[in-house]
């Protein structure tokens, strides 16, 4: 039987190492831009952006370097090929870390939106009193929701034969690795994911809806000039472009950022299909994780492209002639109008 190279562990290892080599300097450059090239107009969201970037980088390096998962969909089984494997970190702990980081990235995404809402509209509302407990709860839940599957880790002597019966005859280049079954009772694995996804989706949609409503309210159109309103909308749109690469449930932005959303939509759709129809195709499994692993490149690239100050740094770095006068002149204008907006909101 002819075996495709794409179905082998060597392919997934080689591909994810290449992605790591490409994304590492880009992540470092993105961190530099956030820390040192964020103008005063973005000062209020600088640290929430850095928080999102930090967790995204952690997730990317965990997947592409420390774990390098070789998963045998439609089962929740497989083995790792990354640095953790050589450090003898149990796969059970690796899976827990991956699940927690995946959720934390989405929580950090919600934090960016919440920060923008709080700065613009929430300082004088009841949200000011509950925002810290809500955000803290989200981060705590991100590390709690994987615990049901982690604590119900199956007996491998019983679970592995059951899993192998569900799969077609595996080639020797897979069987020579120590296959670990992470979950056989999928309710411990699926239900927490559904509940956590629903919680974060609800929070993000509520924040996005309230921001959209406030932006279009008569009150804020009166207290802010049209120029300032347009600038704030531009900042919001820039954030939502990056957010949509992680939160595919913001459907209104998927058409604008289809190349970003594909990093999550295609793998999730494929995994659901394999589980529903008990379908195994290792070539597709490996491609699925390669697409997912491109999230870091996509997310950081979109961040650098969508914000004008960072884009100007990229032009300068690439030695393109690009005027930054428009961006620099906009900073005091935004600050002046933001101060005016805050003054009116306090005295209205």
Automatic annotation (TrEMBL):
Lineage top rank: taxon: Eukaryota
Originating organism: Caenorhabditis remanei (Caenorhabditis vulgaris)
UniProt name for this protein: Serpentine Receptor, class H
Any Pfam family matching the protein: 7TM_GPCR_Srh
Keywords: Membrane, Transmembrane, Transmembrane helix
InterPro entries to which the protein is assigned, alphabetical: 7TM_GPCR_serpentine_rcpt_Srh (IPR019422), Nematode_rcpt-like_serp_H (IPR053220)
Chain segments annotated as transmembrane: 12-36, 57-84, 96-113, 134-151, 186-208, 234-255, 261-279, 286-305
PANTHER family: SERPENTINE RECEPTOR (PTHR22941), SERPENTINE RECEPTOR, CLASS H (PTHR22941:SF307)
């Amino acid at each position: 039987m002819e075996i495709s190279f794409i179905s082998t562990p060597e392919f997934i290892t080689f591909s994810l190492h290449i992605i790591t080599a490409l994304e590492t300097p880009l992540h470092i450059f993105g961190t530099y831009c956030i820390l040192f090239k964020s103008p005063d107009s973005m000062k209020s969201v600088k640290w929430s952006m850095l928080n999102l970037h930090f967790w995204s980088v952690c997730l990317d390096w965990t997947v592409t370097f420390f774990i390098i998962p070789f998963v045998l969909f439609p089962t929740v089984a497989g083995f790792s090929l990354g640095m953790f494997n050589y450090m003898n970190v149990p796969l059970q702990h690796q899976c827990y870390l991956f699940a927690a980081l995946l959720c934390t990235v989405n929580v950090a995404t919600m934090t960016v939106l919440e920060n923008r809402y709080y700065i613009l509209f929430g300082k004088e509302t009841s949200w000011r009193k509950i925002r810290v407990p809500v955000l803290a709860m989200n981060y705590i839940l991100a590390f709690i929701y994987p615990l049901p599957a982690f604590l119900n880790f199956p007996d491998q002597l019983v679970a592995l034969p059951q899993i192998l019966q569900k799969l077609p005859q595996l080639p020797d280049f897979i069987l020579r690795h120590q296959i670990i079954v992470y979950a056989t009772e999928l309710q411990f694995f699926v239900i927490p994911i559904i509940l956590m996804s629903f919680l974060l989706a609800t929070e993000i949609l509520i924040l996005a809806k309230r921001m959209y409503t406030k932006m279009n309210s008569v009150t804020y159109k009166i207290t802010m000039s049209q120029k300032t309103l347009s600038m704030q909308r531009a900042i919001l749109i820039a954030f939502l472009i990056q957010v949509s690469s992680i939160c595919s449930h913001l459907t209104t932005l998927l058409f604008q950022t289809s190349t970003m959303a594909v990093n999550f939509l295609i793998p999730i759709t494929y995994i659901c299909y394999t589980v529903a129809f008990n379908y195994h195709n290792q070539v597709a499994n490996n491609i699925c994780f390669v697409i997912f692993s491109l999230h870091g490149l996509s997310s950081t690239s979109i961040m650098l492209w969508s914000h004008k100050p960072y884009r100007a740094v990229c032009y300068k770095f690439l030695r393109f002639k690009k005027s930054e006068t428009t961006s620099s002149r906009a900073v005091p204008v935004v600050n002046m109008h933001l101060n005016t907006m805050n003054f009116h909101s306090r005295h209205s």
